[in-house]
Structures are given as structure tokens and as C-alpha cells.
Design goal:
Strand content: 5-15%
Strand order of the largest sheet: 2-1-3-4
Largest sheet: 4 strands, parallel
Bound molecules: 1,3-dihydroxyacetonephosphate, iron/sulfur cluster
Shape: globular
CATH architecture of the largest domain: 3-Layer(aba) Sandwich
Helix content: 40-55%
Distance between the termini: 19 Å
Number of strands: 12
CATH superfamily of the largest domain: NadA-like
Number of helices: 16
Length: about 325
């Protein structure tokens, strides 16, 4: 979503926007601090010719400075289209900022906090992937590696194509092999395997946020709120997905909730998305799984301001990794077109 950044928002207006989220830390004093930072970030964006890209899981106050908010696929596409900026500040996690750098090797790409990683990206290294793919090619000479974008750029560089949660089934269906090594998310791999006849050989990673959600928790809510629609992210376990009315990427959940005739939803993904849903679709009710991604939440407005003031922390990639990762990402965009 294109989000025209708000250059001057009064503390009271900001509190009006944030109070319905039910987080009591948004007091008038806190909103005064946030409003000051929002104004300064927007001033610095002009001065530095910078844009801010933000993932759907970011804090609500980050949405106030974002030029674009989206899921991984939308953010990758947006990063590829940037033409009129010298600096991209990425409010998301490290692998997403790397993707922005892959598409913008000549621009400065900044991540406000370098600790903002991802348990999935940590689950596979380029060395381990190269070894496993070489072993499997002895048995399946036509093997293709499809990597979920939640991995490092050097893992992407060893992949035949990337995919996101929005297009994983389509990429696997369209890639020219029946034998796929799918890295690094086992839950997403299982979901893909259920929706294709191809052989899916899965890596053993998981998203620690989604993997902890149990079917018992979902079932309890379903039984206590008749008519509620369950929207689940495909990083969830199979027994959770079986209880869902729809399995969707984060932005697809936004579209589904907006267009559906239903007015109550259980949003089975990271909590930040429910905040965005509540802010943008105030006439419907959203129940959340209350799971926070500690990596996504490392990005703060304070950190974003510091990033723009001091032009840090810069994402750097070798030429070889940048070119290899770009090939796999471009292949994804071609296959999902
Ligand atoms: P989306 O691609 O659906 O935005 O998901 C990204 C992610 O990190 C989910 O945990
Ligand atoms: Fe990674 Fe999970 Fe956090 Fe998404 S929610 S960034 S997959 S740890």
C-alpha cells in the first residue's frame, strides 16, 4: 500500500489513531514524543531524498512515516521500482533490506537495527544448502532449489528461484522440474506439498512466531465466537492451517478482510498485522493470536530517526551475491507474473 507520509500530526490526533489499538503505552505524552519524531523523520526524508519501506508487522507509529507498507512480495516489487531516491530506509527485517539492496545496488539501503534478523533466515546457510543440493542432485539430476525469501542473499544466490508466502505454490508449479528442494520453512513446504503433485524435499527451519501457535488456541476461539473467519499464515503448522478458512500472506489477509462479508476475523499471524487491520478497517472486529516477532519489533521510530540522521546501518553485499540473488528474485517475479 502506498502510504503518503504524514508530515505534521498533532499528539492528540495521533492518540486518536492509536488508542483504538488498546495498547495503553500510547499516552498523550508518548504521542507527543512520537509526533515530534514523525515530523523530524519526514523533514529528513526530503533532505536526504529518502523513502521508507515498511512491512505489515511493523509498529503502528512506523506506518506514519512509511511511503509504502506491504508484504514481502509487494515490498520486493516496490524496491525494484524505486527510481527517485538516494536512500531507502527499510523498516522490516534484515533479509527484506537485503532484497531492497539487491534491486538497488547503487543506492544506500539502511536497516535501523542490524539485530533485526529472522529465525527462518538463520535456519539455512549457503554452505549447508550447497552440500545438500549436491547430494540430492546425485539422486534427482533435475533438482531445482526454491528458496522462500526469508533467507539470506547468499542463500538466494544459490537458488533457482525465490518465492514468498503469496506465490509459493505458483512458483513451484511453474518451475521446470518435478523435484524441488524447498528452503528454509518446513511448514510452508508442507503447505506447498499439499497443493502440488511435485516432489517437495523440505529444509527443517521454522518461524518461531508462527510455529508456536497451536490448534487448541485456534479451536478455542472458533468455538467461543460463532461465525468468526480464521485467516492463517502458511508459516503456521499443518494442524493449525487445517482449522483456517483461508491460508494467506499478510497483505492477502488485508484484502480478504476488506472484501469479505464477514465482520469478525481471527488473524493467525504476528500481532502487528492486526494493528494495521484495526487502523484501516475500523468497522470490523479482529481477534489476534498475540504473538510478537521480536525481530520486527526491534525497529522503532527512535531507530528510524537515528538511521536517517546518521545514515546507518548500511546493507552491503558482494557483487557476486547481489547478482546471484537478483537472478533468483527476478525468476520469481517472471514466474509469478
Ligand atoms: P509475508 O510475506 O506474508 O508478509 O510474510 C513475511 C513474514 O516474515 C511472515 O512471518
Ligand atoms: Fe522471521 Fe517469523 Fe519474524 Fe517473519 S515473523 S520475520 S518469519 S521470525
Amino acid at each position: 500500500m502506498n502510504a503518503p507520509a504524514n508530515s505534521s500530526l498533532s499528539p492528540a490526533a495521533l492518540l486518536d489513531k492509536l488508542a483504538p489499538l488498546g495498547d495503553t503505552s500510547y499516552s498523550l505524552d508518548r504521542c507527543a514524543d512520537l509526533a515530534g519524531m514523525i515530523a523530524e523523520i519526514n523533514r529528513l526524508k526530503d533532505e536526504r531524498r529518502a523513502i521508507v519501506l515498511a512491512h505489515n508487522y511493523q509498529r503502528p507509529e512506523i506506518f506514519e512515516v512509511a511511503d509504502f507498507i506491504g508484504d514481502s512480495l509487494e515490498l520486493a516489487r516496490k524496491a525494484r521500482e524505486v527510481t527517485d531516491a538516494d536512500v531507502i530506509v527499510f523498516c522490516g527485517v534484515h533479509f527484506m533490506a537485503e532484497t531492497a539492496k539487491v534491486f538497488n545496488p547503487e543506492r544506500k539501503v539502511l536497516l535501523p537495527d542490524m539485530r533485526a534478523g529472522c529465525s527462518l533466515a538463520d535456519a539455512v546457510t549457503a554452505e549447508a544448502l550447497a552440500d545438500r543440493a549436491a547430494d540430492l542432485r546425485e539422486v534427482y539430476p533435475d533438482l531445482k532449489v526454491v528458496s522462500y525469501v526469508n533467507c539470506t542473499a547468499d542463500v538466494k544466490a544459490l537458488s533457482d528461484a525465490c518465492c514468498t508466502s503469496a506465490n509459493a505454490v505458483k512458483i513451484v508449479e511453474r518451475i521446470d522440474s518435478d523435484n524441488i528442494l524447498f528452503v528454509p520453512d518446513r511448514n510452508l513446504a508442507n503447505y506447498v506439498a499439499e497443493n502440488t503433485r511435485k516432489r517437495i524435499i523440505s529444509w527443517d527451519g521454522n518461524c518461531y512466531v508462527h510455529h508456536q501457535i497451536t490448534p487448541e488456541e485456534v479451536d478455542r476461539v472458533k468455538r467461543s465466537i460463532p461465525g468468526i473467519k480464521v485467516l492463517a499464515h502458511p508459516e503456521c503448522r499443518k494442524d493449525v492451517l487445517e482449522l483456517a478458512d483461508a491460508v494467506l500472506s499478510t497483505s492477502a489477509m488485508m484484502r480478504y478482510a476488506r472484501e469479505s462479508e464477514a465482520d469478525k476475523f481471527l488473524v493467525v499471524t504476528e500481532c502487528g498485522l492486526s494493528d494495521r487491520l484495526l487502523m484501516e478497517i475500523p468497522d470490523k472486529r479482529f481477534y489476534k493470536a498475540c504473538k510478537l516477532c521480536r525481530f520486527m519489533k526491534m525497529i522503532t521510530l527512535e531507530g528510524t530517526l537515528d538511521s536517517l540522521q546518521n545514515l546507518r546501518h548500511e546493507i552491503e553485499l558482494s557483487d557476486e551475491v547481489q547478482k546471484g540473488a537478483r537472478r533468483a528474485l527476478e525468476r520469481m517475479l517472471e514466474l509469478s507474473a
